[in-house]
Design the sequence.
C-alpha cells in the first residue's frame, strides 16, 4: 500500500534521511526507533508530503508527488506532539476539522449529518463523547491527545503516522493511546507507522519495526526477531545489559 | 448560538440608528425611520420634522454612521483573519504594512497635491488603497522568494521591516514639506467627518463581499490556527489559501483606511472579544466580528463627535480609550472570577 524507494530528504541541502526503501502493507503496524536526530520524524514528514525528497513515495501505486494535498490527507493522517493551543474550539469542532478533505457542503462548508455521525463515532472510539462540547483549552494533556487522535481518525485514513504523540504524557495516557490505536486500526483497515520515544511502547505498538541511525536503516523486520541487545547497543551506544539489569533490580525492589 | 447571533444583528442595527439619532440635536428613532422611508420610498415627511433636520440625518448622520459601521466591520474581519492565519494574537494588517503603505499613498496626495484626472475627490482613497494593497503584494512576493514554505515568522518579520521602512519614507516626505504636515497627521489619526454617501456606496459592498469571501474559508481558518504542518496534513492548500486570505484581509483594511485614515485597536480587540463570547469557530468569529466591530466603531464615532462638541476627537484615540478597558473587562474578567473560585 505504501512504498518508499531510495528515499533521501533533509534540510538546507543536507540529507537527514538517506536512501530508505520500505513497503508497508494494509493494516500493518510499523514502529520506527532510533536515537535523537536519526531522521525518524523527517521520514514521517516525507510520507505526509511535508518535505521535498529524492526517490519515490507511492500510496496505492500512485506517486505522492502527483497527488493533491486533499487526496493525500484522505489517505494519510498524522498525530504529532501537542503544540501550543491558542484558540478555544470545542472538542466536537476540533474533531470535525478532520473531515475537511471529505466535506463539500456549500459556500460556507457546513458539515452534513453524515459528517456529524462520523465525528461522533470517532469520539466514541476514544471515549470522549461526554466531553464533546468542552473547550479543548480546558482538557488535560491526555484528553487533548485523544481529541487529536479522534481528529486523525475522522480523516478515515489508510495510514496513521505517529510522531512521538506520547511525549509529555503520563505513563497511563501513553499506554491508553497505543491501546486505542491498536484496537481501532485493524477495525478500520488502517496501517500505523509510529515514531515513539519509548522503546517498550514502540515494541508494544508494532509487530514490525525499523531501526534507524544517522539517517540510514539499520534493521527492519518482525519486532520479535529484529530487536536484540546487540542491535540496541550498537544503535543507542549504551550498555543495554547493564541498563536492563539495573531496571530489573529497581522493579524487584518495588515489588518488595 | 442562533439566538445570540440574531441578538447581535439586532443590537448592531439599533446602534447604527442611535448613531444617526444622537448628536448636538437629538432626534427620536421614530423620526429617523420616517426620514429614511421619506428618502427611500418617497412617502410624505411628517409635519413636525423640519426639512433641514431631515437633510442633517440623511446627508450627514446616516452616511457617517453607516460608514463607521462598515469601516469597523472591515477592520475587525481583517484582524480576525490575520490573527488566525499568522497564529499570532497580536497580528493585524497594520503589522504587515497595509496602513503604512496607505499612509505613504495619502502622503503623496496630501503633501504633493497629486490628483487623478476626472476623479480628483477619490484620488486620496484610491491611492491610499493602492499603496496599502501594493505593500502586502510586495511583502508576499519577497517572502515567497525568501522562504518557499512561506512560514508565518518570515511573513511577520518581513512585514515589520517593511512597515518601519515605509514609515521612515513617509516621515522623510513630511519633514521636507511641513506646510501640509498637519493635514497628513489628521488623516493618520482617522476621522469620519465630512463623509458622504459616495464613500458608503464604495465601502459597503467591499466590506460585505470581503466578509462573505472570508466566511467561505471558515474551515481553512479553523484548521490553520493549529499550525502549518497540521493544516497541510489535513489537506489545506496552505500556500494558496494563505495568499488569498492575507490579500483579502489587506484589501479590507486598505479600503477602510483609504476612506477614513488609520484607525487602530478595533481589529485587534473585536476578534478576541468575539472568540471569548462565541467560541473560536470561524463560522461565528467572522460574521460576529463584522457586526461587533461595526457597532463598536459607530459608538466610538458617536463619542468622538459629541463628547467635546462642537469640536471632534480623533476617532482612533476613542477606539483605544474605550476599547482597552472594555477588552480587559471581557478578556480578563473571567480569569479573576475563576481565580476566586479556585
Sequence:
Amino acid at each position: 500500500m505504501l512504498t518508499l524507494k531510495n528515499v533521501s530528504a533533509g534540510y538546507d541541502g543536507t540529507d537527514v534521511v538517506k536512501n530508505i526503501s520500505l513497503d508497508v502493507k494494509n493494516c500493518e503496524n510499523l514502529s520506527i526507533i532510533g536515537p535523537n536526530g536519526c531522521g525518524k520524524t523527517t521520514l514521517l514528514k516525507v510520507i505526509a508530503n511535508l518535505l521535498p525528497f529524492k526517490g519515490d513515495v507511492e500510496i496505492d501505486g500512485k506517486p505522492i508527488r502527483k497527488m493533491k494535498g486533499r487526496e493525500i490527507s484522505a489517505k494519510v493522517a498524522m498525530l504529532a506532539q501537542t503544540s501550543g493551543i491558542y484558540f478555544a474550539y470545542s472538542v466536537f469542532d476540533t474533531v470535525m476539522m478532520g473531515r475537511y478533505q471529505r466535506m463539500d457542503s456549500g459556500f460556507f462548508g457546513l458539515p452534513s449529518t453524515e459528517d456529524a455521525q462520523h465525528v461522533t463515532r470517532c469520539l466514541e472510539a476514544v471515549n470522549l463523547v461526554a466531553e464533546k462540547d468542552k473547550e479543548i483549552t480546558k482538557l488535560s494533556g491526555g484528553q487533548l491527545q485523544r481529541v487529536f487522535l479522534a481528529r486523525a481518525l475522522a480523516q478515515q485514513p489508510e495510514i496513521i503516522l505517529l510522531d512521538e504523540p506520547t511525549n509529555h504524557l503520563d505513563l497511563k495516557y501513553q499506554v491508553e493511546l497505543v491501546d486505542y490505536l491498536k484496537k481501532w486500526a485493524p477495525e478500520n483497515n488502517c496501517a500505523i507507522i509510529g515514531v515513539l520515544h519509548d522503546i517498550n511502547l514502540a515494541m508494544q505498538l508494532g509487530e514490525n519495526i525499523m531501526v534507524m541511525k544517522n539517517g540510514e536503516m539499520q534493521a527492519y523486520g518482525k519486532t520479535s526477531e529484529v530487536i536484540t541487545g546487540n542491535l540496541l547497543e550498537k544503535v543507542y551506544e549504551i550498555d543495554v545489559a547493564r541498563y536492563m539489569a539495573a531496571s530489573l533490580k529497581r522493579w524487584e525492589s518495588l515489588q518488595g | 448560538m442562533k439566538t445570540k447571533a440574531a441578538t447581535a444583528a439586532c443590537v448592531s442595527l439599533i446602534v447604527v440608528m442611535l448613531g444617526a439619532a444622537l448628536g448636538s440635536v437629538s432626534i427620536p428613532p421614530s423620526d429617523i425611520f420616517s426620514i429614511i422611508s421619506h428618502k427611500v420610498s418617497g412617502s410624505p415627511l411628517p409635519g413636525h420634522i423640519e426639512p433641514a433636520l431631515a437633510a442633517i440625518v440623511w446627508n450627514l448622520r446616516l452616511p457617517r454612521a453607516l460608514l463607521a459601521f462598515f469601516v469597523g466591520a472591515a477592520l475587525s474581519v481583517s484582524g480576525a483573519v490575520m490573527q488566525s492565519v499568522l497564529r499570532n494574537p497580536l497580528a493585524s494588517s497594520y503589522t504587515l504594512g497595509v496602513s503604512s503603505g496607505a499612509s505613504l499613498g495619502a502622503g503623496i496626495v496630501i503633501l504633493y497635491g497629486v490628483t487623478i484626472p476626472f476623479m480628483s475627490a477619490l484620488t486620496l482613497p484610491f491611492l491610499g488603497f493602492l499603496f496599502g494593497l501594493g505593500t502586502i503584494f510586495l511583502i508576499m512576493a519577497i517572502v515567497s522568494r525568501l522562504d518557499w514554505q512561506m512560514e508565518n515568522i518570515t511573513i511577520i518579520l518581513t512585514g515589520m521591516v517593511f512597515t518601519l521602512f515605509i514609515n521612515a519614507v513617509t516621515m522623510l516626505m513630511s519633514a521636507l514639506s511641513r506646510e501640509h504636515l498637519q493635514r497628513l497627521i489628521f488623516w493618520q489619526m482617522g476621522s469620519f467627518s465630512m463623509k458622504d454617501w459616495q464613500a458608503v456606496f464604495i465601502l459597503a459592498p467591499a466590506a460585505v463581499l470581503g466578509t462573505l469571501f472570508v466566511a467561505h474559508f471558515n474551515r481553512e481558518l479553523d484548521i490553520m490556527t493549529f499550525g502549518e504542518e497540521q493544516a497541510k496534513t489535513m489537506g489545506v492548500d496552505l500556500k494558496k489559501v494563505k495568499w488569498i486570505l492575507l490579500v483579502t484581509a489587506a484589501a479590507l483594511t486598505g479600503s477602510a483606511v483609504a476612506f477614513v485614515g488609520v484607525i487602530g485597536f478595533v481589529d485587534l480587540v473585536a476578534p478576541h472579544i468575539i472568540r471569548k463570547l462565541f467560541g473560536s469557530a470561524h463560522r461565528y468569529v467572522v460574521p460576529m466580528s463584522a457586526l461587533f466591530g461595526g457597532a463598536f466603531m459607530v459608538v466610538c464615532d458617536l463619542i468622538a463627535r459629541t463628547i467635546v462638541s462642537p469640536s471632534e476627537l480623533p476617532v482612533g484615540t476613542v477606539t483605544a480609550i474605550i476599547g482597552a478597558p472594555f477588552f480587559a473587562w471581557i478578556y480578563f474578567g473571567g480569569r479573576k472570577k475563576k481565580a476566586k473560585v479556585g
